[in-house]
């Protein structure tokens, strides 16, 4: 069988003409479904100039269809899959007759459709970014799905949402076992990342001798009780540049970070920053302040929480402040700490987690947020279209998230 390059997506797996153009089976299935269902699409960028390539799983449907037409695919050559074919008579004479050209085309189309259905979910365009799969050999364990009880007439879906929302398909995902070496390597790397972040905090917030920075043990907590200072909402000026730099280095040291796209790296960095502020405050408080009823933030500042300070919502609360500006500043800075104490820190401290458990839980939270943020926060300015195009990054998210799940079971 001679392989050719697909005119639509450049896949090297085209074997024949489909609807008038050299194309792979995935592009042929896409064109057939679009015409049969009379679907219309809108360009996800609005420029109608999207690149269509087999290595990009989430290609723009509008631009893909336009390219099919430009490459001479003919709509009139598509036979509607919606129409039921008349049952054949099972007579001996009819069974001996060779099929007509029309019947041969129908049989070929049906066979192509069956082939497309059997394509892996992540392999719609019949090729995946090979570099990503070589980097993550067990990504197939997260992304490869065994087809069970398959009874449907749909082709390979275009998105994971379509894949799971198709009521006509019964697909049960099954995950491969992750190798022990991958689990241990992931855990070891995250322990190093967290320890390095704590050492950076030691340098930034404390008077630390140089010899303490090169201890071979993991740095579990960057502060001692004697080094903690009280938080003053009146003088707080926000985060400093070195804190953003510190979190940037932390994000860059994440396993798989170099394999992410620019948008994927941006997202990991933002969630590293947000998750670190919350979870490290909870962890430091559990070690240094919870027994004394003191909230310890990630920068070593303390706020007494037993008894709980006023929230500012109480009647007449403003009278305890010298000005309305001071009152509003208090509410802005202290109220979030009170909520964090009640809903995050108290439950977290009751878990009494070890350093290893904390590190895994924190990293897992970051990867989980990265993977599901468009669905959880649809109105928070996250570009869903961009995320759906960024499938290599999603594979990285999936892989490391599932390895960390395995770490929790060790």
UniProtKB/TrEMBL annotation:
The name this protein goes by in its record? Nuclear receptor domain-containing protein
Matching entries from InterPro entries are given as: NHR-like_dom_sf (IPR035500), Nucl_hrmn_rcpt_lig-bd (IPR000536), Znf_hrmn_rcpt (IPR001628), Znf_NHR/GATA (IPR013088)
Q: Which PROSITE patterns match?
A: NR_LBD, NUCLEAR_REC_DBD_1, NUCLEAR_REC_DBD_2
Give the family, as the similarity comment puts it: Belongs to the nuclear hormone receptor family.
User: Which Pfam families would you find in this protein's record?
Assistant: Hormone_recep, zf-C4
**Organism of derivation:** Diploscapter pachys
Composition bias of kind Low complexity appears in 90-108
User: What are the entry keywords?
Assistant: DNA-binding, Metal-binding, Nucleus, Receptor, Transcription, Transcription regulation, Zinc, Zinc-finger
Q: Which domain of life is it from?
A: Eukaryota
Question: Residue ranges under compositional bias (Basic residues)?
Answer: 76-87
Which molecular function terms from Gene Ontology are attached? DNA-binding transcription factor activity; sequence-specific DNA binding; zinc ion binding
What SMART domains would the database entry show?
Answer: ZnF_C4
**Residues annotated as domain Nuclear receptor:** 3-80
Start and end residues of each NR LBD domain? 178-410
